[in-house]
Design goal:
mainly alpha; single chain
Length: 117
């Protein structure tokens, strides 16, 4: 991952387009590109089958939020910490982690002007 000084975002938030999000993923979290491509293919298939753009819209929102978090090293580190805590902690720690993860996600959705999840 590209580093940043003074807690500044690694890159500006990209526009919410497939191309811009793919470029951002490639730049700051290249290991996530296979998941991005797989999920894009699934969303496109679902959209075609249902003649509905909602699956693609959800895909774009999800990845815009992911990039919003990952482009901020401190937020991304905190997010990973809470994911790990949820996975390996006891029930009380898992509930606390779920709450913290939800807040980070809610903040990201709000920052991007997206409807709450």
């Amino acid at each position: 991952m590209t580093t940043s000084s003074a807690g500044q975002p690694l890159i500006p938030q990209p526009p919410a387009t497939v191309t811009a999000l793919r470029q951002a993923v490639a730049q700051i979290v290249p290991a996530a590109l296979p998941a991005f491509t797989r999920e894009l293919d699934q969303a496109a298939d679902q959209s075609r089958q249902a003649s509905d753009l909602a699956p693609l819209q959800r895909f774009i929102a999800q990845w815009a939020v992911y990039i919003h978090i990952q482009r901020q090293p401190n937020v991304a580190k905190e997010f990973r910490h809470w994911e790990d805590t949820a996975e390996i902690g006891d029930a009380t720690q898992a509930r606390r982690a779920a709450s913290a993860l939800g807040k980070i996600l809610d903040d990201a959705y709000a920052a991007l002007g997206l409807p709450p999840r």
